[in-house]
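Why do we bother with holo predictions? Because pocket geometry can differ from the apo form. Keep that in mind while you read this record for phosphoenolpyruvate.
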Amino acid sequence: MSIMIHGIGLGGGIAIGNAYILDKYLDDATLHFLEEDELPDEISRFEDAIYKTRLELERLRGDIPFDAPAELGAFLSLSIMMLNDSQISQAPIKIIKEEFCNAEWALKLQADRLSDQFAEMEDQYLKERKYDVIQVLERIFKNLDGNQFNWDSVGKIEYGILVTHDLSPADLIHFKNSNFSGFVTEVGSLTSHTAIVGRNLDIPSIVGASFSRQLIKDDELIIVDGVNGVLIINPDEIVLKEYKKLQQDWLHSRTKLKEIRKNETVTLDGVNVSLFANIDTVNDIVDARYNYAQGIGLFRSEFLFLANEDHLSTEDEQFETYKKLALEMKHNSVTIRTADLGVDKNPSWNLMNHNDGMNPALGLTGIRLSLAEYSFFKTQLRAILRASYYGDIQVMFPMISSSIELKQAINHLNYAMEELKDEKISFNPKIKIGAMIEVPSIAIAIKSIIPLVDFVSIGTNDLIQYLLAVDRNDESVNYLYNPLHPAVLKIIYHVIKTCDKADVPVSICGEMAGDTQMTRLLLGMGLRRFSMYSSNLLNVKNVILNTDISLIMKTVNKILKCEQIEKMDELLEELNIL
Ligand code: PEP
Ligand code: MG
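The structure, written out:
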């Protein structure tokens, strides 16, 4: 039977291939310490997993085909019996209580202990029973939520489409090096970092395709339509043929778009626009250059720290990366945003021993974390300054909420300059300084930082989240995340106009800049600098080349004056068909 699921398409075209369902393994369990009052919940989570495992095994036993080997029934009965054994059902609870740890970790510890006991057995037959026990523990583990998986094993897969519950931004860095031709996740929202990085991969992908792991069998043929967010499981011949054609058409239109790569980015009425690239790694430079980006508008430097499995990048490691960016981009500017860690971008190892807090998005994140971790921040600033000697490097600070914070960051930059001067190390003393405008307070009070900066860049992803009080990572409130909310447009317009008046270059580097539905509106609002992932660059350029700003202004003004959110979609459509 063929099934269709809808999710959020991250683009990248269409992939047709066999599903590789990513399961979780006991060995991948990680340790989380719990507070005493969290223990009862953790224990009931573990007991729920035992219960689910029992149901699963009983169902399997009830569904044994009549021609299956006789031992299968006996094996399943034995597995069900094991669930009653205190070594499996009680010992992990004891560990949770004694070690104050999560259930996954307790299960892993108990598995290790049991493995050791089996290893000591003399009887070969009993020794072998270890694998039966571990299999039961693995099944319990899979019925616990929130596990991480191991990329070492996944990286070896030769082909296929990855289907998994979730991928963190750090997982996607690993994904880039794998051979999968697409991916599907069960959770995810439009502007989560997973979606943003996923879009940059430019391979067919869908997030938020609920229950896909339950509906897809391992190795089953699936179609991932990343453009429309449609996942088709086990397509019939007619659908398959249709999608193969769509895949060809998509590739063809891609090729056609490439013809405008080298064209100047200028509107029909002669207004010049600059298009920059957002990158996460040095390798992304290849696409940025291929698509003739005028520079790097945002290097999310935090990915340097996410990619490392076990340590912070040293000053020299960072310097080499930044220098490479400067040299590769030749005379074009490279804007390095200092680490924007926290919330969903955290290294797998404990970076700075700060706990998550009640509400990490309002906690120690972005520049706040850097200012709290002086030596980490200084290391990064020194590396950026040293690299500035080799090209047009600019530095930009994330999550600025007041001029005080920005002044503190600039003071740290000045100290780093003093140190380098004393050490006779070369750098560009006139390095350009920028601030991300992504916290509403600083967007409104933009004038307060104008004297401190050489440029600003509007981070619409966070600006919208904080302005509308909508968690960008929470799919349950996705429907409220609306770039066309009158408050969003007014605040962006205010920033653009204020910066224009003060002659401070302003760009947008959030997802709005790469959304072709928004291009004309932003042009009409006065934006002349867009920064986006390279995969969107030619699409946006195409819209710009086909826009006459003087002809769209009437509708743009109508949109800017409109106070009714429900009318916005219609007005935008009107603007985009002009
Ligand atoms: C933004 O918030 O718009 C932005 C560009 O930064 P990030 O998506 O990395 O938070
Ligand atoms: Mg941001």
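The chain has a mean pLDDT of 90.
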